[in-house]
Amino acid sequence: MNHIISPSMLSANFNNLGNDIEMINNSQADWFHIDVMDGVFVPNISFGFPIINHIKKIAKKPLDVHLMIVDPDKYIAEFKNVGADYLTVHIEACTHLHRTIQNIHTNGMKAGVSLNPHTPVELLSEIINDIDLVLLMSVNPGFGGQKFIENTFSKIEKLRKMADAKNKNLIIEIDGGVDNTNAEKLIKLGANALVAGNYIFKSENPTKTISNLKSLNF
Ligand code: DX5
Ligand code: ZN
Question: What pTM does this model have?
Fold first, then answer.
């Protein structure tokens, strides 16, 4: 499978969001990465249902929604209503993760689990069969434009082995500080989806930056 590129809308221009959505529609990007922050699980607040609903109206690609919120179960049906295709929750925010995953699937979405940088991938061993995607945070969640944490590389290697043994269809997505200095290595080690915010939206030619990320060899 060719790797997936998921531009993070957190770094888009909210004064002209339609423009950035069209740019992604017409680019080689595969998904829209949508970061939802509640000011409790992470020290920042981003945006919620109305914005996602507006993105969905003109987006021509799946919405990859990353919830950085406590108690995500409360809102799963509403995220489906506003158009989420992939819904990813944080392992650190879910006491009954298995139930949460079931709930996401019952609502007709693909289910992802995200891990903070300090959370070992081994914690996924009993749930890896039940999920579609793992989102490894390569920065501490809450903000775009942070520096990539190098320890992510060894987490990818371990997770790739687990996935090869137990769930060959698992998508391994990397989020935070992804750019041209690490993207190729991430793919080589076994990641197959890359989120990028600042690297894409702060570049001179975002469409070209996306196609460069997409055409990496591995
Ligand atoms: C951080 C978010 C990321 C962020 C990535 O908490 O989950 O998706 O937007 O932005 P960059 O690529 O700029 O690190
Ligand atoms: Zn994210």
Answer: 0.98
